[in-house]
Design goal:
Blueprint: E1 2-7, H1 14-26, E2 33-37, H2 39-48, H3 54-61, H4 71-77, H5 83-94, H6 99-104, E3 108-115, E4 120-125, H7 131-140, E5 150-152, E6 155-159, H8 168-173, E7 176-182, H9 197-203, H10 208-215, H11 217-233, E8 237-240, H12 255-271, H13 273-280
Parallel strand pairs: 1-2, 1-7, 2-3, 7-8
Antiparallel strand pairs: 3-4, 3-6, 5-6
Helix pairs in contact: 1-2, 1-12
Length: about 290
Amino acid sequence: MKTGLILEGGGMRGLFTAGVLDVFQEHDIQVDGVVGVSAGALFGCNYISRQAGRALRYNLRFKDDPRYMGLRALWKTGNIVAPEFSYHTMPRELDPFDFDTFNSSPVEFHLVATDAEKGVPFYKRIDKMDDTGLEWMRASASMPIVSTPVELEGMKLLDGGVTDSIPLKYFQAEGFERNIVVLTQPKGYTKSRTKLMPLFHLLMRDYPEITKCMARRHLMYNSQLEYIAEQESVGNIIILCPERPLKIGRTEQNADKMMSVHERGRICALQNLQRIKDFLAGKKTRE
C-alpha cells in the first residue's frame, strides 16, 4: 500500500509544513510520494533532498534582501518573488539544494500548477530536479496578479492552488491509498469569496479563466475540506494542521513570525508522532 504526503500551499504559512517535515526527517518518517501545491512544493522538496531546516534558514537569511521577495522584486521583475534569484541563484549558489539526493530518492515528487489559459490544474511529476524542475516549482507558486505566468510545455502556468488546493483525490488516483494531509489552516476554517475580484477583472484581463477560477475558488476549497474530513472519518488519511490561525501574511518576512510558525509545525508533528507512525504502519489510529 503506497503512502503519501499532501502539502497545501499558503505562502509563508507553509513554514508550518516545513516544521512538520523537519520532524519527519529527524524521526525517519518515510512515505512513498509527496504532492505539493505552491509553498507546499517549495518547502516539501527539502523533505526529499533530506535538508531539514533549509526552508526556514534561507527565508531568515534573505528576508531583507531586495533580490528575493517583496515590492521591489515585483517592481523590477513583475514577480513578488524574484524568479532568477529565488529559483536559480539561491538554490544553486547561496543555499544549495541537494540535487543529487533528490534525484536519487525513490520517493515520488509531484506538484500542481494551473493552466492559466484553460483554468484547469496541471499535475507534474518531477523525477529529476534541474533548471527545468526549478521552473516547475516556480510555476506552482506563481500567485496571480503578483506573478507573471511561467511558460512550460506550451502552457502558461500559475499557482496550483487556484484550481486544486488540496490534491488528495489526485494522489489517490495515482495509487496512494494512505495519506497524511498537511494543512496550513486550522480545522473549522472555511474560505470566503476573495475580495480581490475587482483586481482580477482589471489585471488578469488576458487570462479570463483565472478570474473565473478565483471567483469560485472558495467553493472548490470548501468542497475539498469536506472530502478530506470524510476521508479522515473512514481512516484513509490523517490531517496535521495548526490548532489556531497562523498570523503571518503570504509574503511576510518577519523573523519572529516565521520562527513561530515553523515551531508550531514542529510541535504539531511531535505531538502526533506515534499516531503518524501507527497510521503509516497500517494500524488504526485515534485523534
